[in-house]
Amino acid sequence: MRYKKFKNAEIEVSQLAVGTWAIGGQNYGKVDKNEAIYAIRKMIEKGVNLIDTAPCYGNGTSEKIVGEVLKEIPREQALISTKFGLIPDIYTHGYKKDTSYKNAMREIQSSLMNLETDYIDFYFVHWPDVNTPIDETMAALEEMKRKGYIRYVGVSNFTAEQIKEAEQYIQIDVQQPLYSMVDRGFEDLMSWGYDRGIDSMTYGSMGAGILSGKIRSMPSFEKNDLRLNFYDIYKEPKFSKIMELLKVMDSIADGHNVPVGQVALNWSTQKEYVGTALVGVRSIEHADENCKTFDWKLTEEEMKILDSKIEECAL
Predict the structure, then answer these.
(1) Which of 41, 85, 159, 262 could, after both became Cys, cross-link 258 (CB 3.0–4.6 A)?
(2) pLDDT of residue 88
(3) Model confidence, pTM
(4) Would you identify the CATH topology of the domain 3-208+262-296?
(5) What is the pLDDT of residues 67-125, one digit of tens each?
């Protein structure tokens, strides 16, 4: 496993992290809970030291599964990242944004209970809330730090302007943007954050599964599947462009005798401004395959070839 020293947080973090959106079991395909727990444990055994979750992933289900994992390992062996401010709406089946002081203090207690832990390492504002003044939200986070509930402050889906406003009240340690070979919209934001000590935990690191190389024709997901509704990957013309990129990735993967997914993970984590890549796992085999990514590296020439093809495909 490779590690990076996060600047503002001043802590070593594995360049691969466990993402648990899918194991919440909500609109992301079938999930075997026990298999997911075994897979997370396998990644921890292989040197991964960060697990990312959120209360809205399956309305608490994901956090509770992570809590079960934590029972089996020393607490200091894993850094835990979770979030607040995005609440499932049972009436609309959507989400409400609420980063108010009152809700923040309610959610931290709920997450600590779900995770069965005394503290959370990285605590994120999940989405900006235009109805709550930023100083109110940051005051809640400052209070949590004072009480020892959290160690580091993060923001997710924030713009540079929103981050700068938040920084007036508290140090922002990390951010969590969408990023992969096929989703590069936040690249400038990540580079900007990196220069001021704000490291990135990237989600969607495998392009909702398409960068594994295991999907070569348009899939038939359920209509409410998040891979169709949250991402634009499984839509034309982008899908066909990604298939062209995969041909180049196939060639590089064959040269190293590795799965295509390892090419995608190395490309991402070899970028200076990527702190760690969040990757979902559903099986022990999948966990082992992902961790073996760090047994090798892409050459500078291979990185240039991939970057060139990504630009050519306008991804």
Answers:
(1) 262
(2) 81
(3) 0.92
(4) TIM Barrel (3.20.20)
(5) 999 998 999 999 999 999 998 877 777 889 999 999 999 999 999 999 999 999 999 99
Give domain limits for the chain.
3-208+262-296
pLDDT at 282: 80
Which residues are marked as active site?
57
The average confidence (pLDDT) of the chain is: 92
Following DSSP, what letter does each residue of 165-226 receive, concatenated?
HHHTTS---EEE-B-BTTB-TTHHHHHHHHHTT-EEEEBSTTGGGGGGS---S-----TT-H
Phi, psi for residue 138 in degrees, rounded to 5:
-65, -30
